[in-house]
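Ticket #4471: structure output looks truncated?

Reporter: J.K.
Steps to reproduce: submitted the chain below (65 residues) through the standard prediction queue, then opened the result file.
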Amino acid sequence: MPDGLLIVTTRPYDELLRERPSATPARTATTEAGRAVSFQLWDWHDDGEHYDLRLFQPFLTARAP
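Returned output as attached by the reporter:
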């Protein structure tokens, strides 16, 4: 079995369908490569039940001395 990480979550779908948010809150993480921030943009379809998701995850690397 290969090493890895599985993350499973559920979303509050009833609330999301009512509110139709356009983005998720930004989240930050620190890795060996530097800091990262991630967020999603949601473009809702006219049917109000489906959306296109765009994930953004820029990395901030340490500045050279």
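Triage note (M.O.): checked the attachment and the full token line is present. DSSP finds one helix and four strands in the chain.
Status: closed, working as intended.
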